[in-house]
Specification:
1 helix; eight-stranded antiparallel barrel; single chain; mainly beta; AOC barrel-like
């Protein structure tokens, strides 16, 4: 019986190899990283998120009411913290991973309560990058055209002054956000980044379309000035 069992195992493995040659397994495309070298020896990379199409709809409902859905965002608890998940694109527009942003009120360096956001960029073929910032504008939930709560990008008041907004306002000395860590390819990197929003279109029904831009500038920790 043992010989018969192992005989079937070997035959099964051979059949799998044969079928893989006839019907090759699907492979996910891998795009070349679009990285630019900057004068201080670091590297710069740009990422893009298109909204609303790149929003990933979260699961609705949660136990004990700790989470509630507000459009495509999830509001956590009574403090109004917001968690969002997006598809992440490279500078050429290729989807290369996922990005999550959590936004809440927190104390700044002077102890004042300000809104801030934490980003996590997940690139399956490269690793994960963790970033944090203080926000120059409120990017939480605001009333949209129909009066219901929604992401700030859907609120006309947010775009009253201009159609391009730099959201990042620190905590780095130059007003940039701070890269706080990473894994795999991003391990051991430090640096800064900027988040900007651009409004591209407002439809007749008030629906909006635009993009979020993330530009990272990193160096190896030992090379930082």
């Amino acid at each position: 019986m043992t010989r018969i069992f192992y005989g079937f195992v070997v035959a099964g493995m051979a059949l799998v190899v044969l079928l893989a040659g006839v019907f090759p397994l699907p492979s996910s495309p891998r795009f070349r990283s679009t990285i630019a070298v900057i004068p201080d020896g670091g590297r710069e990379e740009s990422f893009t998120i298109l909204w609303p199409q790149d929003r990933v709809q979260p699961m609705r409902g949660a136990e004990h009411g700790l989470l509630r859905a507000a459009g495509p965002a999830v509001v956590m608890g009574e403090g109004g913290a917001v968690a969002e998940v997006f598809r992440l694109r490279d500078a050429a527009g290729n989807v290369i991973g996922l990005a999550s942003r959590s936004t809440s009120r927190r104390a700044d360096a002077n102890g004042a309560r300000r809104q801030g956001s934490d980003w996590t960029l997940l690139l399956p073929s490269r690793g994960t990058l963790f970033m944090t910032q203080v926000n120059a504008r409120d990017v939480g939930l605001q009333a949209g055209p129909d009066g219901t709560p929604g992401p700030a990008t859907q609120a006309m008041g947010f775009w009253a002054r201009d159609t391009r907004v730099r959201v990042t306002a620190g905590p780095a000395d130059d007003g940039a956000g701070r890269i706080v860590g990473g894994t795999e390819e991003f391990a051991g990197l430090v640096g800064t980044y900027e988040e900007t929003w651009e409004l591209e279109e407002v439809a007749a029904d008030g629906a909006m379309r635009g993009r979020i831009g993330l530009v990272t500038r990193v160096v190896q920790a030992g090379d930082a000035p």
